[in-house]
Each structure stands twice: as C-alpha cells, then as structure tokens.
Design goal:
This protein is mostly helical. Among the domains are: about 260-315; about 480-654, no CATH class. It contains 27 helices and six strands. The chain has helices at about 1-10, 45-60, 70-80, 85-95, 100-110, 115-125, 145-155, 160-175, 180-185, 205-220, 240-250, 265-290, 295-310, 370-375, 385-395, 420-430, 440-445, 460-465, 485-495, 515, 550-555, 575-580, 585-600, 605-615, 620-630, 635-645, 650, and strands at about 255-260, 315-320, 330-335, 340-345, 480, 650-654. The chain has a two-stranded antiparallel sheet. A two-stranded antiparallel ribbon has the order 3-4. Strands 5-6 form a two-stranded antiparallel ribbon. A hairpin with a 7-residue loop joins β3 (about 330-335) and β4. α12 (about 265-290) runs antiparallel to α13, α15 packs across α16 (about 420-430) and α15 crosses α17.
Length: about 650
Amino acid sequence: MRLLALLALLVAAPAFAAEPDTHWSLRPRTRAAVPEIRNPKGAIRTPVDAFILAKLEKDGLSPAPEADRGTLIRRVTFDLTGLPPTPAEVDAFLNDKAADAYEKLVERRLASPRYGEKWGRHWLDLVRYSETEGFEYDRYRSGAWRYRDYVIDAFNADKPYDRFVLEQIAGDELSSESDEVRIAAGFNRLGPVRRNAGNQELAFSRNEVLTEMADATGTVFLGLTVACARCHDHKFDGITLADYYSFQAFWGATHERDVILATPVEQAAWKAKTDTIQAEIKKVQQTIASVAGSARTQAEEKLKELEASLPPPLPAVSTVRNVASDRTPVHVLKRGNTDKKGQQVGPKLLDIGFRGKVAELPTATANPRTILARAIVNPENPLAARVMVNRIWQWHFGTGIVDTANDFGINGGRPSHPELLDWLASEFVQPKNLSPWSIKHIHRLIVLSSTYRQAVRHPDPKPGALKDPLDRSLWHFPRHRLTAEEVRDAMLMVSGRLNLKTGGPSVVVPLDNDLVKLLYAPSQWTVTPDRKEHNRRSVYLLSKRNLRLPFLEAFDQPDAATSCSRRESSTHALQALELLNGAIANELAEVFANRLQREAGADPAVQVELAYRLATGRPPSAKEKELAVAFLKTQSLKEFAIAVFNLNAFLYVN
C-alpha cells in the first residue's frame, strides 16, 4: 500500500521545470581561459592538459607517466580506426626518431578510410541504425545501407557537424534531387515501424512514427529526454506536454519515401517477374489453407521456394519528404493516447535550449525541419556543441565529461570538468584560424594531449584509488576491452583474411539454421553468395533488428531498438565459449595457423614471435614465449591460435 501511495504521489506531482538560467547545460556557453599551471606534474601539449592538470592538482593527484611507444601506436590505431597496427607499422613508428613522429601517426590514422568505418559505427549506435523495421514482420528497408555509407563518408571527409546535422534532419528539404542529402534524411526513418497489417496510416501507428522521429532528434542532437513528456509534463526538465507535441509537429507533413534508382525498363522487368511469382505464391497459400498432412507439407516447401525466388528489391534511396496535402494534425494527447486529443498545435522549438526563440510557427510552414535543424546548430544554442564534444570525449576515454551522454537534463550527470567541456564546445563552434564544427579538430586536441598518452598503470595508484576510484579526473588512462566488431575485425586481420572493400550493399553471413527458422520469413536471411564478402569489416554486415549475430551479441553489440550512447562491456561465460568453441573463432584460428606456418616456417619460437606481434602489437615476453613454445610441443598450431585470440593482450587496449 505504501508503494502504491508513493506512485500515486509521483504521478500527481507537478513537473520540476528547469529554468533556462539555472541548470548548467541550458546556460550560455562561456569560453573559460586556459588554466595556467605553475608547476605542472605533466607535460602540457594541448589546452586539454591544462584543464585536466588543474583539477588533478586541486584534488592532490598526479598524472601517470606517458605510455611506451608500442602501447601508444596500438591505442591510437584501435581508437581511430578500430583495427590493430601491423608489425611493419609498429616498427616504422618505433624507429621514427623525429620529434613529430606521434603527430604524423595520428594524421595518418585520421586520413585513413578505416577512420570513418570506426567512428561511423559510434554514430550508427547512437541513431539506432538498422536496415529492418522490427516488430513481427521486421521488413527490409531497401537501400537503408546507403545511410550507413553516408555516415562513414561524412566522418572521413570531416563534414562540418552543423552541416551533418542539417542534412540528417532536413536533407530532403534542402534538395529534392541530391541523392546524398536525401540519403542523409533517412535518419528520420531509422526507428522501428509497426506495420499493422500494412495499414500505416492508422492514428496510433502514425503517432508512433512521429514519436520516433521527434524522440531521436531530441536525444541525439540535444541530449534531452524529450520522450518523457509524451504522456505528461516532464517530471524534472522544463518540457511540458504541449511543448512535446509542438516539437513533434515539425514532422507533421513528413512521410516515408523510397526513390527508385532503376531505369523504367528495369522497373518494368522487375514488376513483371515479381507479379508472376506473387500470383504463384497466392495460389500456394490457398492450397495450404485447404489441405493437410503431406500435401500441406509439400505446399509449404513450395511456398518457401517461391518466396526465396522473389527478385531482390530494386536499388533505392530510403528517405522522407513533406506532403502538404497529407499533413497529420498534431494534437496534445492526454497520456499519449490518440483517442484523447486536446488542442491542435503547430511546430514550436522547445522552451529549454532555445533562448527567446519559442514562438509557434504556422502549421503549414514550409521546410519546418530546416528551421528546426538550423536552430539546433545555431551557435547560441547551449546544447548541441556541448553534447557532441562530450560524445567525442566519451568515445575516446570510455566515459564522457558528462557521464550521461544522452541526458543533459536535471537527472543527468554533472560535468567532471565543466570549464573544459565549455572550452571544447566553444572551440568546436569557433576555432581560431580553422573551419568551424570540425570533429577531427577535436580529435587532435584530445589524442595529441599528454592526458591521452598516459599509461594505464600509475606508479603510485593509492591516492587516486582512494580519492577518485572511477578515474573521473583521468589520473591514468582507462584500459578497455575491444568492442564486439573490433574483436571480429581484429581476428580477421591478424589471420590475414580481412577484406577491406568499402561501402555497398550489406553482407549476409552464414548463420545457424535454427536461428534463421525463428524469423517471420526465413527468406529474410539470404546468405551473400560471394564468400570473400563474408570477411568484410563488421560495420558492413547486415543490421537486422530481430536477429543479431550471436558472436557480436555476446560481446555487447547493442540492440537497435533504442539509442545507444555508450557500449556496455560485460564479462561472462558465453564470451569464452564463443572464443574457444565458436564457429568464427575456430575457422579463423585455422586460417591464422596457416598464416603462421606460411610466414614463420616450422620453428615454434618464430611462430610464437610472429603470432604475438600480429595479435598484440608487441613481441612476447620471455615467460610468454617459454610457455607458448612448450604448449606447441603437445598441441596443434590451431589450438595455439585459439589461445592467442583469448589473450587479454589481444582483447584489451592499454
């Protein structure tokens, strides 16, 4: 009874609105002066170091010494490209005695096409990218993979972040003819879609679509939990129920659109073949409904064959467009219920975050999402730049300056280094003598710093462990495990099988048939026939909502149903089982063993040396070498390769 009473009190309680001038994230940015450190206990290479050292000094802590060069090249290579450095790259860096050897290394990594594949993956997590719609049908969205390639290309080209935001929210409004911006606008279609037996315009389903668009924009670009105000005034942040639906109204006229890229002749041929097969499918379905026993079984098998023979979807751009004649009237909904409509509202910016720019727009305003996107990246908006530089910081160090990257509201974390966060955000928007909104500029400020170059182990860890056990002050570099995709990609690379082809339609790899049978239609998992394609980087594998690859799922690949701002890093038995007994690990261990035999010859000592250099970026220690050579006296080279895949030195980055 006490619990029920408490819940009733919480539901009835008024919202605790955040006034624009009170909560730190909603105040205007201030570009703090870079601290002057009189007796720095570490080198100041970029302004980042001055802010970090100032707090360490205040807390009575000192930074860890610089990591050795072998550790640094492996760290920054994984961090910027998601792949391990080759032995040749390690040797070249270790032998480069130039004062700017590390700076040149960083520039090579930022210029690599692998950079966009790694950092694009971060963004795809954030926007809950998938190529299927989820729910029971989990239907494919033809051409959805083009959005993935757009993101990778944008990171590689260092597309200014304000343009990146504008194209994703409103690319179709910017140009109806440019494939690039139409593809970018596919951001608005990344959420799960409930098809309701094909009727997408039911009020409930339409509201779900608008909700997905609005919630994702608020979360990804503003770091606000706007979804909390869908059913009631936000209990903590200053977002009312009316604010929420006014925000949602920016998408009132937005509808999905597939732009077919095939020629009229190709479309006609595709339609003729599809119609013929669909007619056969309909006949077989009627047969199934009228027979039983073996006849039914045969008909069901025939149905599977026919479904599998349907031609693949025509090449298309998965995007959106405004349809003025089909604008959905947006009403304030009581408890989010489409049957309980309140007043109709037009597009309006959220009161919080947009100081003095909250007038409601006419419902029929042209290009409403362009207005919204430009307001989001307006330098006066206190949130957008703070949110993005915090994400970049988190993706480098594992934890953001604000540890709740998707929540800059009242219930979110407070910044560990508020002056540094604002300095970085200001530098992002208005750098000196550089193009604004450059993500690579923020990378350089971070990875060239002494803070980033610290060792994982501190020579005197006790003060830090007592005062800052979570390392929020960064008194040492935080060790981390490879992501799921990095584990798979690194295994492919060290075995010599990695296919570095970029872009294009997603790859469907073989999967246990028992899992495929669980799909709504097994024909949804048609394996890519070219086996070389199966060895491409994991970012190019098919992203299907209702079926994740067991290997990637075991290593914490996130569910695409919701925005993932930060990957979990769990440790459990299934991971060891995948690396010891799994099909991927055993297949690649065989390939790795063959490579060692081919390149190192028959000498076990040479094989061990090469295996460690490929997998860990360093030679084995004397003890490691002794144990490995002894192991090879009784076990096969394949078993040794599996053991290498299970080494902490392979799975973790120091």
